[in-house]
Amino acid sequence: MSKLIIANWKMNGSIEQIEHDLSIYAKSVYTNNPSVVLAIPNIYLYLAAQIQNKLGAKFSLAAQDVSKFRNYGAYTGEISASMLKELGAKYFIIGHSERRTYLNETEDSLVHKIDNTLNEEIIPVFCIGESKSIRESVEYRDFLENQLKTLLKVKSSFDKLVIAYEPIWAIGTGIVPTSEQISEVLKLIKAFVQNYLPHAKITALYGGSVSGGNASEILNLPEVDGVLVGGASLKPGDFVSICTY
């Protein structure tokens, strides 16, 4: 089975970088396939789709966020799910810890975003993760399960569902959880979906300081269906190395 590998560029990139990096990914047998997903800033999605079509590239595109408001309306600065779909996005990242923290995203807004995504038949990539202080407590499993319960408030039915475990204490720190810690949480995720959303096809990812040096070990864990890559996705050589799994 192909592993799903998502590159989260975050607020990075330029027209020049998009043109350069995507041309590399279009030529590599390791990155030129639909299981490799590039989540670039929303403003570059149209350019990326044009490059994709020009080169006949098979990689997929994702949006890093989507509006909680449905379709069109007087919501200055917002970008709807339907607009992003038209630009070529097949996945949306929703609930990343950076947005939860810096932009105070609430559970209610996440529910609306997931609903809007599903209504456009786009696959949501729902992120969960705990801080270092919560990880060191005895309640970290309860915390993660409570984050997962957000999915139970979504009105739309699930077909495909991607859930990414990104421990906050590992994002951009170079610290990677042990194999046992990763496996434990991904088992928790899959058990939750089996119990509460048994009709959904689940893809469970790990994210947090994924690199060319540790990707193979992480991706070889039987519970891991793929990875969400941050900093290493900004370096084509490193990202291709991750995708050689």
Notes on the structure:
This protein is of the alpha/beta class. It has one domain: Aldolase class I (TIM Barrel). The protein is built from ten helices and eight strands. It has helices spanning 15-27, 45-55, 81-86, 97-102, 107-119, 132-135, 140-148, 179-196, 215-219, 236-243, and strands at residues 4-8, 36-39, 60-63, 89-94, 123-128, 160-165, 201-207, 226-229. It has an eight-stranded parallel β-barrel with strand order 1-2-3-4-5-6-7-8, surrounded by five helices. Helix 7 packs across helix 8 (179-196). The longest helix has 18 residues, at 179-196. It is globular and about 50 Å long. It starts with a strand and ends with a helix.
Draw up the topology in text.
Elements: E1 4-8, H1 15-27, E2 36-39, H2 45-55, E3 60-63, H3 81-86, E4 89-94, H4 97-102, H5 107-119, E5 123-128, H6 132-135, H7 140-148, E6 160-165, H8 179-196, E7 201-207, H9 215-219, E8 226-229, H10 236-243
Parallel strand pairs: 1-2, 1-8, 2-3, 3-4, 4-5, 5-6, 6-7, 7-8
Question: Which terms would index this structure?
Answer:
8 strands; 245 residues; eight-stranded parallel barrel; TIM Barrel; alpha/beta; 38% helix
